[in-house]
Amino acid sequence: MAKKYKFYPIKTVKGVDGEDWDIYEEIMTSVGIILCKGWRYGTRGGQFRFILTSDVAEYIKKTGLYEAMDGLGVSDRVIGRFRRELDIQRKWFVISPEEHEWSMLHKDELLNKSYSELQQKYSLNQTTVARLARHLLYLGESRQREVRQSDKSYEIEQFYQSHKNKIVEMTIQEIMNSLKCSETIAKKIYSRAYREKITVHWQRNNSKNG
Question: Highest taxon of the source (predicted)?
């Protein structure tokens, strides 16, 4: 959730450039890092500027350009500025012929599957997946969905496939506890397992009667 003030700064922080910045907006990102917007200390006017704090800098150093865009929820222009300020080279973009060939063979997975699944199947870290996915997008390939499958969705699917015969015997609370998910998600999982069980039972009866 974003915290925003229009007339008075929330606080003052020091950027990696050594300058003090007045913070007028704080945004909690999906990776748990607070992204700050504001003006240089004691100044006002124009649009707020994203501030390169030490936490953001450490994250940028450990991730690729497009993974950082996803994680922080900002444009390539903002991440590009952060990377220039940190003097990070753009070797991240280099794709070898072997990587290109492999990427084309696995493009649907690279563009849509969760990082956890790709790490489990191919031992790829998030930075490599993001780099290869961006290469595919640059070539004109498209995603099947607006955003990549989340690691949580992959975890839920793995749980379902491993326990679908037992899920119909579990309570909603037991499913919630097993997956640490909401009641809504637990009910959807239960309903899916129940429908599948009924369908299998119906098909078996029809097969016997036939």
Answer: Bacteria
